[in-house]
Design goal:
Alkaline Phosphatase, subunit A, 17% strand, 16 helices, alpha/beta, eight-stranded mixed sheet, globular, 31% helix, seven-stranded mixed sheet, 2,3-Bisphosphoglycerate-independent phosphoglycerate mutase, substrate-binding domain, 537 residues
Length: 537
Amino acid sequence: MGKQHENRPVVLCIMDGVGLGRADDGNAVWAAETPVLDELVRSEKHRSLIAHGPPVGLPSLSDMGNSEVGHNAIGAGRTFSQGAALVEHALESQSAFTGDTWPWLLSGGTLHLIGLLSDGNVHAHTRHVFSILKQAAKDGVKTVRVHLLTDGRDVGERTALEFIQPLEALLKSLCSTNRDYAIASGGGRMHLTMDRYEADWAMVERGWNCHVHGVGRHFSSAATAIQTFYDEDPSVTDQWLPAFVVTNDQGQPIGRISNGDGVLFWNFRGDRSIEISKAFEGGQIPFDRGQTSKVRFAGMMQYDGDQQIPARFLVSPPAIESTVGEHLVAARKRIFATSETQKFGHVTYFFNGNRSGYLDEQLEVYEEIPSDNVPFNKAPAMQAEAITRRTCEAITSGSFDHIRLNLPNGDMVGHTGDFDATVVAMEVVDRCLGDLRAAIHQVGGVLLVTADHGNAEQMYEWDKKTNEYKRGRHGERIAKTSHSLNPIPFAVVDPMNRWRMTDVETPNLTHIGSTLLTLADIELPRGYVPSLLEPKK
């Protein structure tokens, strides 16, 4: 295998949320003018990859991939059981409750459960909180309060009642003369609590005030709150619902969090769990916690192993060692990684096996480009052009051997359900691909164009029974704001024509990691899956 020239970098471009879907007007990628991507997908150096289910460490083929899992898989070069699968096993085996964290949570006053209420299985699953509630009753917990976040992003955009009604029924069944279990507060996941990468601390503060202090619009029940919001604003979707608080007959919140109480955040995914964890654990945060700061707090998992956030958790995260990044720095490869705030952690923390910071500061440059704090469908270009411009400078500088970037547009704009805005987003991404391709042709390197999961290519809900798009009450197609189960593209720009595709059967995201090492002239470590490329003879 020939040595990589120092001025010929290998570039990994991850188009977040861009899958391969139906060629119809429900596909924003197909509808967009994307001449560069079209040419790449039609080229001989293109394959589709699996980005969901067991191949990337998720429990079943019905489990959608996501950005965390996708970047973990790419950076690992092997399949590791991911958050959902780990939690499922820990709850089924009862191991989540056998350590010292669970009894510690129960040793105070009220037990409060906070998390995303849906079966999307990207950040959380209703099965998990149902199991925890049943265990709490079994262990004699007298008072439980649930603080829920409505989804509308990993599941249908107005499905909150489908999850709240069974929860309310379970809570009612668990109540007795000695047990008082109820929903206390809630609101949309993109309005409160679940910020990530410190992009909008005001979201976390709204969540804190709602869950902890009982600040929000008062209702007699969660179901009443959701239905009222729907009736008042037919356009509002679950992820943006305002904060609500459930009150008693005297109009007082039933679930304020007090010092000495136990609090469990039941989400398993890390990125949108870190900030609320910091708030409960007394970390440095930019808002006033008020008088409530001393609670027993734990997460479903540890969301940041390096910073040990949170200190206590029910289920240990996957230990991903021998990552692609580790082998690159061991081989003294110079690395550049960049994205904007919304996905910066994915090309650093998640790619590096859930490790914060640098692997080797002497060899790596990480550059975060601040995201705009505006709705993504209002500015669908996001920071893609700035990310691309900085990447092209890195490509042509001759200073780096391995370069990776994430263009977030397909995912972040796709999540809004705004078809037209997502088309614009994809056209911006395509222009960025053109610039990256030109830079690679200039220096003679290799560009890999791929994704981490699908989203933008399926903008409406699909009915498998009728084999057509689902329709609402007035015949309109129902927007799909979640990820998809579609495969994703993997295309190679190889201007020096030094590489050819291998015959890997049913390849998935993990094969990208092996391919990166092969392109860097690094022998594949034990356990790695085969590379998608090999040198031409």
